[in-house]
Amino acid sequence: MRTLFLSVADVAAIVRERGVAACIAGIAGNIRADFLRWESFDKSARLAAHSGLGVIELMPVSDAQSYSFKYVNGHPRNHLQALPTVMAFGVLADVATGMPRLLSELTLTTALRTAAMSAVAAQVLARPGSKVMALIGNGAQSEFQALGFQHLLGIEELRLYDVDPLATDKLVRNLQGTGLRLVRCASIAEAVRGANIVTTVTADKTNATILTPQMLERGMHVNAVGGDCPGKTELHPGVLEVASVFVEYEPQTRAEGDIQQMPRDFPVTEVWQVLAGARPGRQLDSEITVFDSVGFALEDFSALRYLRDAAEALGVGETLDLVPELPDPKDLFGRVKGRRLRLAA
Fold this sequence. Notes:
Blueprint: E1 3-6, H1 8-18, H2 20-35, E2 42-43, E3 47-50, E4 55-62, E5 66-74, E6 88-94, E7 100-105, H3 107-125, E8 132-136, H4 142-153, E9 157-161, H5 165-174, E10 181-184, H6 188-192, E11 197-200, E12 207-211, E13 221-224, E14 233-235, H7 237-241, E15 244-247, H8 250-256, E16 269-270, H9 271-275, E17 289-292, H10 297-314, E18 318-320
Parallel strand pairs: 1-7, 8-9, 8-11, 9-10, 11-13, 12-14, 13-17, 15-16, 15-17
Antiparallel strand pairs: 1-18, 2-4, 3-4, 4-5, 5-6, 6-7
Helix pairs in contact: 1-2, 2-3, 2-4, 2-10, 3-4, 3-10
Protein backbone atom coordinates (compact mmCIF):
# COMPACT_ATOMS: atom_id res chain seq x y z
CA MET A 1 0.00 0.00 0.00
CA ARG A 2 1.50 3.34 -1.06
CA THR A 3 1.18 6.78 0.51
CA LEU A 4 -0.26 9.82 -1.27
CA PHE A 5 2.20 12.73 -1.21
CA LEU A 6 1.16 16.36 -1.69
CA SER A 7 3.97 18.82 -2.30
CA VAL A 8 3.80 22.60 -2.00
CA ALA A 9 3.12 22.72 -5.75
CA ASP A 10 0.29 20.19 -5.39
CA VAL A 11 -1.45 22.11 -2.60
CA ALA A 12 -0.98 25.38 -4.47
CA ALA A 13 -2.59 23.75 -7.51
CA ILE A 14 -5.59 22.66 -5.41
CA VAL A 15 -5.97 26.21 -4.08
CA ARG A 16 -5.70 27.77 -7.54
CA GLU A 17 -8.22 25.31 -8.96
CA ARG A 18 -10.80 25.74 -6.21
CA GLY A 19 -9.98 29.26 -5.05
CA VAL A 20 -8.72 30.47 -1.69
CA ALA A 21 -12.19 31.30 -0.37
CA ALA A 22 -13.61 27.90 -1.33
CA CYS A 23 -10.68 26.08 0.31
CA ILE A 24 -11.08 28.06 3.53
CA ALA A 25 -14.82 27.38 3.48
CA GLY A 26 -14.24 23.66 2.87
CA ILE A 27 -11.77 23.36 5.72
CA ALA A 28 -14.11 25.39 7.94
CA GLY A 29 -16.88 22.91 7.21
CA ASN A 30 -14.63 20.03 8.25
CA ILE A 31 -13.55 21.86 11.42
CA ARG A 32 -17.15 22.48 12.41
CA ALA A 33 -18.08 18.85 11.78
CA ASP A 34 -15.06 17.54 13.72
CA PHE A 35 -15.58 19.93 16.64
CA LEU A 36 -19.17 18.71 16.89
CA ARG A 37 -17.82 15.21 17.61
CA TRP A 38 -15.20 16.53 20.03
CA GLU A 39 -15.63 13.69 22.51
CA SER A 40 -14.73 11.14 19.81
CA PHE A 41 -11.10 12.31 19.68
CA ASP A 42 -8.05 11.37 21.72
CA LYS A 43 -6.60 14.84 22.42
CA SER A 44 -3.47 16.25 23.99
CA ALA A 45 -1.59 19.54 24.05
CA ARG A 46 1.19 19.75 21.50
CA LEU A 47 4.74 18.72 22.32
CA ALA A 48 7.10 21.68 22.04
CA ALA A 49 10.88 22.06 21.90
CA HIS A 50 11.75 25.68 22.66
CA SER A 51 14.97 27.52 21.92
CA GLY A 52 16.06 31.13 22.13
CA LEU A 53 15.17 31.64 18.48
CA GLY A 54 11.87 29.80 18.21
CA VAL A 55 9.96 26.60 18.77
CA ILE A 56 9.45 23.24 17.01
CA GLU A 57 6.23 21.38 17.80
CA LEU A 58 4.44 18.10 17.17
CA MET A 59 0.63 18.18 17.19
CA PRO A 60 -1.11 14.76 17.36
CA VAL A 61 -4.81 13.83 17.47
CA SER A 62 -6.88 10.76 16.54
CA ASP A 63 -10.31 9.22 16.49
CA ALA A 64 -11.21 5.55 16.11
CA GLN A 65 -10.41 5.53 12.39
CA SER A 66 -7.67 8.07 11.66
CA TYR A 67 -4.57 9.50 13.32
CA SER A 68 -2.82 12.70 12.31
CA PHE A 69 0.11 14.78 13.39
CA LYS A 70 1.64 18.05 12.27
CA TYR A 71 5.29 19.05 12.54
CA VAL A 72 5.44 22.86 12.74
CA ASN A 73 7.91 25.52 13.80
CA GLY A 74 7.70 29.16 14.79
CA HIS A 75 10.87 31.19 14.28
CA PRO A 76 10.10 34.94 14.11
CA ARG A 77 13.54 35.91 12.74
CA ASN A 78 13.55 33.40 9.89
CA HIS A 79 12.71 36.13 7.40
CA LEU A 80 16.27 37.42 7.84
CA GLN A 81 17.44 34.15 6.23
CA ALA A 82 14.73 34.22 3.54
CA LEU A 83 12.87 31.42 5.34
CA PRO A 84 9.21 31.37 6.39
CA THR A 85 8.59 32.02 10.07
CA VAL A 86 6.24 29.01 10.04
CA MET A 87 6.97 25.74 8.17
CA ALA A 88 4.95 22.57 8.50
CA PHE A 89 4.14 19.13 7.15
CA GLY A 90 1.70 16.49 8.32
CA VAL A 91 0.53 12.89 8.11
CA LEU A 92 -2.89 11.24 8.07
CA ALA A 93 -2.79 7.53 8.95
CA ASP A 94 -5.10 4.56 9.58
CA VAL A 95 -5.58 3.77 13.26
CA ALA A 96 -6.31 0.10 12.49
CA THR A 97 -2.96 -0.57 10.81
CA GLY A 98 -0.78 2.49 11.41
CA MET A 99 -0.37 2.84 7.65
CA PRO A 100 0.31 6.46 6.60
CA ARG A 101 -2.24 7.32 3.89
CA LEU A 102 -1.26 10.95 3.29
CA LEU A 103 1.96 12.92 3.66
CA SER A 104 1.45 16.59 2.88
CA GLU A 105 2.97 20.03 3.11
CA LEU A 106 1.14 22.07 5.73
CA THR A 107 2.79 25.50 5.53
CA LEU A 108 0.30 26.86 3.00
CA THR A 109 -2.41 24.71 4.53
CA THR A 110 -1.81 26.02 8.06
CA ALA A 111 -2.58 29.53 6.83
CA LEU A 112 -5.81 28.26 5.26
CA ARG A 113 -6.89 26.30 8.34
CA THR A 114 -6.02 29.15 10.72
CA ALA A 115 -8.25 31.48 8.74
CA ALA A 116 -10.94 28.79 8.66
CA MET A 117 -10.82 28.32 12.44
CA SER A 118 -10.91 32.08 13.00
CA ALA A 119 -14.02 32.32 10.84
CA VAL A 120 -15.75 29.36 12.51
CA ALA A 121 -15.26 31.00 15.91
CA ALA A 122 -16.30 34.46 14.70
CA GLN A 123 -19.52 33.11 13.20
CA VAL A 124 -20.76 32.36 16.73
CA LEU A 125 -18.90 35.08 18.67
CA ALA A 126 -18.90 38.25 16.54
CA ARG A 127 -21.95 40.48 16.25
CA PRO A 128 -24.14 39.51 13.28
CA GLY A 129 -23.73 41.96 10.43
CA SER A 130 -20.11 42.86 11.24
CA LYS A 131 -18.63 44.64 8.21
CA VAL A 132 -15.37 46.25 9.38
CA MET A 133 -12.27 44.38 10.56
CA ALA A 134 -8.95 45.73 11.80
CA LEU A 135 -6.03 43.53 10.74
CA ILE A 136 -3.01 44.09 12.97
CA GLY A 137 -0.01 42.30 11.49
CA ASN A 138 0.11 42.15 7.70
CA GLY A 139 2.52 39.26 7.21
CA ALA A 140 2.19 35.75 5.79
CA GLN A 141 -1.18 34.91 7.39
CA SER A 142 -2.93 38.20 6.68
CA GLU A 143 -4.37 37.60 3.19
CA PHE A 144 -5.91 34.32 4.28
CA GLN A 145 -7.54 35.95 7.31
CA ALA A 146 -8.82 38.78 5.13
CA LEU A 147 -10.39 36.49 2.53
CA GLY A 148 -11.76 34.09 5.12
CA PHE A 149 -13.58 36.88 6.93
CA GLN A 150 -14.76 38.46 3.69
CA HIS A 151 -16.36 35.29 2.37
CA LEU A 152 -17.50 33.57 5.57
CA LEU A 153 -18.43 36.62 7.69
CA GLY A 154 -19.27 39.31 5.12
CA ILE A 155 -16.46 41.73 6.05
CA GLU A 156 -16.32 44.60 3.55
CA GLU A 157 -13.64 46.94 4.95
CA LEU A 158 -10.17 46.15 6.31
CA ARG A 159 -8.26 48.64 8.44
CA LEU A 160 -4.58 47.72 8.15
CA TYR A 161 -1.56 48.24 10.39
CA ASP A 162 1.91 46.70 10.58
CA VAL A 163 5.16 47.99 12.06
CA ASP A 164 6.67 47.19 8.63
CA PRO A 165 5.04 49.36 5.92
CA LEU A 166 6.37 46.98 3.26
CA ALA A 167 4.21 44.20 4.73
CA THR A 168 1.14 46.39 4.33
CA ASP A 169 2.21 47.23 0.75
CA LYS A 170 2.38 43.49 0.02
CA LEU A 171 -1.04 42.86 1.54
CA VAL A 172 -2.64 45.68 -0.43
CA ARG A 173 -1.14 44.37 -3.69
CA ASN A 174 -2.37 40.84 -3.04
CA LEU A 175 -5.91 41.96 -2.16
CA GLN A 176 -6.42 44.17 -5.19
CA GLY A 177 -9.52 43.11 -7.10
CA THR A 178 -11.12 41.27 -4.16
CA GLY A 179 -13.75 43.96 -3.56
CA LEU A 180 -12.47 44.72 -0.06
CA ARG A 181 -12.06 48.38 0.96
CA LEU A 182 -8.49 48.68 2.24
CA VAL A 183 -7.62 51.47 4.67
CA ARG A 184 -3.99 52.01 5.70
CA CYS A 185 -3.65 53.21 9.28
CA ALA A 186 -0.77 54.94 11.05
CA SER A 187 -1.26 53.18 14.40
CA ILE A 188 -3.03 50.28 16.07
CA ALA A 189 -5.39 52.69 17.81
CA GLU A 190 -6.40 54.21 14.47
CA ALA A 191 -6.88 50.77 12.91
CA VAL A 192 -9.19 49.43 15.61
CA ARG A 193 -11.30 52.58 15.86
CA GLY A 194 -14.77 51.70 14.59
CA ALA A 195 -13.90 48.07 13.84
CA ASN A 196 -16.46 45.35 14.58
CA ILE A 197 -13.75 42.65 14.60
CA VAL A 198 -10.06 43.02 15.47
CA THR A 199 -7.68 40.32 14.24
CA THR A 200 -4.17 40.35 15.72
CA VAL A 201 -1.70 38.12 13.90
CA THR A 202 1.80 39.23 14.86
CA ALA A 203 4.93 37.05 14.88
CA ASP A 204 7.33 38.35 17.55
CA LYS A 205 8.00 35.83 20.33
CA THR A 206 7.50 38.38 23.10
CA ASN A 207 4.94 39.38 25.70
CA ALA A 208 3.72 42.20 23.49
CA THR A 209 0.78 44.51 24.14
CA ILE A 210 -0.92 44.90 20.78
CA LEU A 211 -4.36 45.69 22.15
CA THR A 212 -5.14 47.62 25.35
CA PRO A 213 -8.46 48.11 27.18
CA GLN A 214 -8.60 51.74 26.04
CA MET A 215 -8.86 50.57 22.42
CA LEU A 216 -11.91 48.37 23.00
CA GLU A 217 -15.38 49.36 21.86
CA ARG A 218 -18.77 47.96 22.84
CA GLY A 219 -19.64 44.76 20.98
CA MET A 220 -16.14 44.22 19.56
CA HIS A 221 -14.90 40.71 18.77
CA VAL A 222 -11.16 40.12 19.11
CA ASN A 223 -9.63 37.32 17.04
CA ALA A 224 -6.26 36.94 18.81
CA VAL A 225 -4.15 34.66 16.61
CA GLY A 226 -0.51 35.61 17.25
CA GLY A 227 -0.11 34.69 20.93
CA ASP A 228 0.54 30.97 20.55
CA CYS A 229 3.37 29.78 22.79
CA PRO A 230 4.72 30.36 26.31
CA GLY A 231 6.12 33.87 26.62
CA LYS A 232 4.28 35.11 23.49
CA THR A 233 1.17 37.24 23.97
CA GLU A 234 -0.62 40.10 22.22
CA LEU A 235 -3.35 41.31 24.58
CA HIS A 236 -3.11 43.45 27.69
CA PRO A 237 -4.52 41.46 30.64
CA GLY A 238 -7.15 44.16 31.05
CA VAL A 239 -8.64 43.18 27.68
CA LEU A 240 -9.23 39.65 28.94
CA GLU A 241 -10.66 40.87 32.23
CA VAL A 242 -13.53 42.75 30.55
CA ALA A 243 -14.26 40.16 27.84
CA SER A 244 -15.90 36.78 27.47
CA VAL A 245 -12.99 34.54 26.46
CA PHE A 246 -13.23 31.46 24.23
CA VAL A 247 -10.50 28.92 23.42
CA GLU A 248 -9.90 25.77 21.38
CA TYR A 249 -8.47 23.25 23.88
CA GLU A 250 -8.20 24.70 27.37
CA PRO A 251 -5.18 22.68 28.68
CA GLN A 252 -3.09 23.88 25.72
CA THR A 253 -4.30 27.49 25.72
CA ARG A 254 -3.62 27.86 29.46
CA ALA A 255 0.08 27.36 28.68
CA GLU A 256 0.35 29.04 25.29
CA GLY A 257 -2.42 31.57 24.76
CA ASP A 258 -2.98 35.09 25.96
CA ILE A 259 -4.68 33.61 29.03
CA GLN A 260 -1.24 32.41 30.23
CA GLN A 261 -1.14 35.86 31.86
CA MET A 262 -4.25 35.15 33.91
CA PRO A 263 -4.91 33.09 37.10
CA ARG A 264 -5.42 29.36 36.57
CA ASP A 265 -9.09 29.69 37.46
CA PHE A 266 -9.75 32.49 34.96
CA PRO A 267 -13.01 31.44 33.23
CA VAL A 268 -12.95 30.41 29.57
CA THR A 269 -15.26 28.45 27.27
CA GLU A 270 -14.11 25.94 24.64
CA VAL A 271 -15.53 26.78 21.22
CA TRP A 272 -16.79 23.26 20.58
CA GLN A 273 -19.23 23.72 23.46
CA VAL A 274 -20.69 26.80 21.77
CA LEU A 275 -20.97 25.04 18.40
CA ALA A 276 -22.74 22.11 20.09
CA GLY A 277 -25.16 24.41 21.94
CA ALA A 278 -23.89 23.26 25.34
CA ARG A 279 -22.59 26.72 26.35
CA PRO A 280 -23.57 30.21 25.20
CA GLY A 281 -21.41 32.24 22.85
CA ARG A 282 -22.13 35.96 22.51
CA GLN A 283 -25.10 36.81 24.71
CA LEU A 284 -25.31 40.60 24.43
CA ASP A 285 -24.90 42.98 21.50
CA SER A 286 -22.65 45.13 23.69
CA GLU A 287 -20.52 42.20 24.92
CA ILE A 288 -16.80 42.08 24.11
CA THR A 289 -15.66 38.63 23.02
CA VAL A 290 -12.14 37.25 22.60
CA PHE A 291 -11.14 34.12 20.71
CA ASP A 292 -7.74 33.23 22.18
CA SER A 293 -6.56 31.14 19.24
CA VAL A 294 -3.34 29.11 19.50
CA GLY A 295 -4.02 26.45 16.85
CA PHE A 296 -5.05 22.94 17.83
CA ALA A 297 -4.25 19.57 16.24
CA LEU A 298 -7.89 18.79 15.46
CA GLU A 299 -7.93 21.69 12.99
CA ASP A 300 -4.99 20.14 11.12
CA PHE A 301 -6.81 16.78 11.13
CA SER A 302 -9.74 18.57 9.47
CA ALA A 303 -7.44 20.25 6.95
CA LEU A 304 -5.65 17.00 6.06
CA ARG A 305 -9.02 15.36 5.41
CA TYR A 306 -9.88 18.24 3.09
CA LEU A 307 -6.58 17.91 1.21
CA ARG A 308 -6.99 14.15 0.81
CA ASP A 309 -10.50 14.48 -0.62
CA ALA A 310 -9.57 17.41 -2.89
CA ALA A 311 -6.48 15.65 -4.21
CA GLU A 312 -8.47 12.51 -5.01
CA ALA A 313 -11.20 14.53 -6.74
CA LEU A 314 -8.73 16.57 -8.81
CA GLY A 315 -6.16 13.83 -9.48
CA VAL A 316 -3.39 15.79 -7.76
CA GLY A 317 -0.31 14.36 -6.04
CA GLU A 318 1.85 11.27 -6.39
CA THR A 319 2.26 8.06 -4.46
CA LEU A 320 5.37 7.15 -2.49
CA ASP A 321 6.74 3.89 -1.15
CA LEU A 322 7.10 5.46 2.27
CA VAL A 323 6.66 2.02 3.88
CA PRO A 324 8.52 -0.99 2.42
CA GLU A 325 6.38 -3.56 0.62
CA LEU A 326 7.53 -7.01 1.74
CA PRO A 327 6.55 -10.38 0.22
CA ASP A 328 7.17 -11.74 3.72
CA PRO A 329 6.35 -9.09 6.36
CA LYS A 330 8.68 -10.88 8.78
CA ASP A 331 11.67 -10.56 6.44
CA LEU A 332 12.58 -6.87 6.63
CA PHE A 333 16.29 -7.70 6.25
CA GLY A 334 15.58 -9.16 2.82
CA ARG A 335 14.68 -5.65 1.62
CA VAL A 336 18.31 -4.52 1.93
CA LYS A 337 19.90 -7.54 0.26
CA GLY A 338 20.94 -7.40 -3.38
CA ARG A 339 23.42 -5.61 -5.57
CA ARG A 340 25.36 -2.65 -4.16
CA LEU A 341 25.50 0.74 -5.87
CA ARG A 342 28.45 1.42 -8.15
CA LEU A 343 29.90 4.62 -6.72
CA ALA A 344 32.03 6.94 -8.82
CA ALA A 345 35.75 6.81 -8.05
